[in-house]
């Protein structure tokens, strides 16, 4: 049996409604009337034989089936953009020099660079990993065109760049380990100037918990090694805490750490730089 084909315009409307939370707000984005969007979604629901939205007085929410479709829909739109762009967009050329903190380099950059190489094969991207404060200095010196930084690090302006990612900073340690029970609490931290370090120490001081800095490393891998060996605990982005590590939640008595942010700071401008910046921001949106 031949399956029906999805209309990319309907998929775009579906994503706009899901992301905006309402037909009227989405109508502005896709340049259609709310009634036209309603008809599109009705046909889509009939085609898939599934309810996609729960209609409420002031907003709409995705059903479980709608949540499942949203992931597919975003990938379809991305693939459509790449396909059409391959044939219609003028080929970009040139060089972009990008800076990145260590933790971002291991999480986000591989997918960004792989996709950018497919969509813009004639653009050379050079990546420099390092401390946020050093990367900003290299940007100011003209050695980088743009850089990702951990917002809040010492030596950086609070409003520097465009925030592209925010997530909870949590305590992490070895699952079943004993380091969290020791006093003074052994910590694995980055060196002076790191926002994670400053937030963690301030929270422990405020909670009156004795600690000692057992290990210092500029790289997440070094901090993680101490946790894996159950020699220390550390403040870590929630998305980086994977088995055999675990979050050390409220039962441990450790204080909450709040959120941390990643910002994109740009220097040079141009079509290639704009394209890479957009793909970096899209990668962080998908990462959430």
TrEMBL record:
Top-level taxon of origin: Bacteria
InterPro entries: LTTR (IPR050176), LysR_HTH_N (IPR000847), LysR_subst-bd (IPR005119), WH-like_DNA-bd_sf (IPR036388), WH_DNA-bd_sf (IPR036390)
Keywords: DNA-binding, Transcription, Transcription regulation
Gene3D superfamilies per record: Periplasmic binding protein-like II, Winged helix-like DNA-binding domain superfamily/Winged helix DNA-binding domain
Domain HTH lysR-type, residue spans: 6-63
Similarity remark: Belongs to the LysR transcriptional regulatory family.
Protein name from the UniProt record: LysR family transcriptional regulator
Organism for this UniProt entry: Alloalcanivorax balearicus MACL04
């Amino acid at each position: 049996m031949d399956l029906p084909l999805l209309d990319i315009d309907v998929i775009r409307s579906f994503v706009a409604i899901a992301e905006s939370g309402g037909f009227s707000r989405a109508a502005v984005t896709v340049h259609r009337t709310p009634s036209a969007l309603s008809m599109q979604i009705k046909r889509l629901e009939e085609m898939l034989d599934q309810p996609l939205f729960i209609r409420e007085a002031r907003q709409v929410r995705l059903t479980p089936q709608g949540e499942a479709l949203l992931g597919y829909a975003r990938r379809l739109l991305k693939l459509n953009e790449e396909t059409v762009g391959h044939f219609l967009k003028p080929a970009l050329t040139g060089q972009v020099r990008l800076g990145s903190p260590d933790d971002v380099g291991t999480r986000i950059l591989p997918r960004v660079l792989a996709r950018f190489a497919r969509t813009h094969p004639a653009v050379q991207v050079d990546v420099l990993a390092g401390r946020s404060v050093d990367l900003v200095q290299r940007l100011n010196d003209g050695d980088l065109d743009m850089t990702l930084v951990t917002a809040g690090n010492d030596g950086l302006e609070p409003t520097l760049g465009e925030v592209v990612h925010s997530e909870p900073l949590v305590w992490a340690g070895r699952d079943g380990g004993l380091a969290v029970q020791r006093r003074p609490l052994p910590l694995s931290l980055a060196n002076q100037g790191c926002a994670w370090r400053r937030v963690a120490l301030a929270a422990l001081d405020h909670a009156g918990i004795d600690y000692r800095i057992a290990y210092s490393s500029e790289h997440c891998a070094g901090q993680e090694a101490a946790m894996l060996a159950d020699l220390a605990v550390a403040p870590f982005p929630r998305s980086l805490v994977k088995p055999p590590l675990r979050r050390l939640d409220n039962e441990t008595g450790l204080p909450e750490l709040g959120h941390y942010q990643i910002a994109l700071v740009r220097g040079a401008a141009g079509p290639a730089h704009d394209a890479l910046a957009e793909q970096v921001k899209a990668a962080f949106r998908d990462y959430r």
